[in-house]
Amino acid sequence: PTGRRAYGFLEPTDHWFQAELNYEDGEPVGTIRLCYVEDHAAILSNFRSVGKSEWQPDLTSHKRRQALPTVLENDMGSNEANAHAEEGGRADERAEEQELGRREERRTAPG
Question: Per the confidence metrics, is the pTM higher than 0.85?
Answer without folding.
Answer: no
